[in-house]
């Protein structure tokens, strides 16, 4: 069904109850993977530096998940060690009037990463086959047509050098409940709560079903979906970091080419240095 | 092969020599169609106004053709009578470094028309399967893959309310020659000439062949290609105008809905008027 990182097999039926949101693959606690996490972060930064100097490829990380699944948190933790000059993060909110006047991929396409860059999408064009479908703004038929458009769009990106990686942060309904209560009880967390989140929670079942559709229909070998158990934040961050590093390792990024012709410029510079 | 407006039948092999660039369909001169042209212009403006108030659909006119085929001219003549608030024109030049760092549809997607708008593209994303192919920057295989991406992209636009109409301005090699000489002989036309146009002219045969590929592979019922004989400017403008009007007629644009509830606001206003 998936490898140890939760990568889905394209075309296979997906049932989210097959994944335990609390799963940590027998890792007992954060401390056990602390050293490896540090190493992964360092490696991720090295690889990003190569990507940035090479300027031939790009990577788009799409993060989806229910409210409270930790999309903000995972972006903060996993991408924080990178050179921010080469990273862009886009949070997709309710579309503006201008955005709504265009096709549903318009706003996302404009912020896809150029060669050399990593982009992280906090929510994405997938909302247009999820929240709109849950609320009946988009019929089942239209949702499936739009998933096809998404696949073509991602294939365009892939063919033009943008690696696409999609990550579903998988939490339990109980976990969300605890988070919502926490956000209301603790004054300093109040800002995180949008009262409408409590309304969306009532559609949990439908969201789950439509997510399963999305995961089944849009997972491809080149633009894979990963299901990441996310009830434990440390395991979530660790897993996403491993996915990120593995993705960039597989891109076979090359070191910048040496330019032997530069050598001939050295004598002049040496001469100036020797004068002092 | 095509109807009287030059619309191509999807999937049919295209041979441009089957069209006479000098064709005027037995119309003798500009005067003969002057009255009809004026009426068409008026109707086009009416339809645009409906499109603009309705704000449900949009139209994208793509203009392609060899150098000197009159892309600028046709846009100036056919679109000049419209409300400019609802029209955008984009000329696609050599891509910038920023544009080149993204997929080839990125720059075009960002300037597609929103609901209510008409956009005219002077050259377009089709250059990415023409000029780049002529100069070997894109292989035959890549060109055909990119034509597929274009078809998917246009289908996305169509599904999201943007009608796509593609117009090939068909001129003879002799006509181009006369235009080039004219642009060099007449000082006030010098600004129109890019010396590289003389180089591109040498690839006439290859351009013709690759245009034929494009026309055959990307003409669809919903996003048709029209071949417009363009050695006679007046016939070219007249034909494009007819295509434009027919396109908007077929969109079944509706008049803005009356809002009966507004009637209740009148008594107050009448009262104020009566006071004077």
Task: Please give a structural write-up.
Chain A has 276 residues and is an alpha/beta fold. The first copy, chain A, has helices at 30-54, 71-79, 97-100, 106-109, 131-134, 140-159, 173-185, 196-201, 204-218, 233-250, 266-275, and strands at 58-65, 87-91, 118-122, 162-170, 225-229. In chain A, strands 2-3-1-4-5 form a five-stranded parallel β-sheet, sandwiched between helices. Chain A is globular. The N and C termini of chain A lie far apart (68 Å). The model of chain A has no long low-confidence stretch (mean pLDDT 95). Chain A binds chain B through residues 55, 98, 101-106, 109-110, 112, 114-116, 145, 149, 152-153, 155-157, 159-162, and chain B through 55, 98, 101-106, 109-110, 112, 114-116, 145, 149, 152-153, 155-157, 159-162.
Offer a few descriptive terms.
homodimer; 276 residues; alpha/beta; 5-stranded parallel sheet; 11 helices; 5 strands; kinase (chains A, B); PPK2-rel_1 (chains A, B); Polyphosphate_phosphotransfera (chains A, B); PPK2-related (chains A, B)
Give the topology.
The structure is a homodimer of 276-residue chains.
Chain A: H1 30-54, E1 58-65, H2 71-79, E2 87-91, H3 97-100, H4 106-109, E3 118-122, H5 131-134, H6 140-159, E4 162-170, H7 173-185, H8 196-201, H9 204-218, E5 225-229, H10 233-250, H11 266-275
Parallel strand pairs in A: 1-3, 1-4, 2-3, 4-5
Helix pairs in contact in A: 1-10, 2-10
Biased composition (Basic and acidic residues) (chains A, B): 15-25
GO molecular function, one term (chains A, B): polyphosphate kinase activity
Keywords (chains A, B): Kinase, Transferase
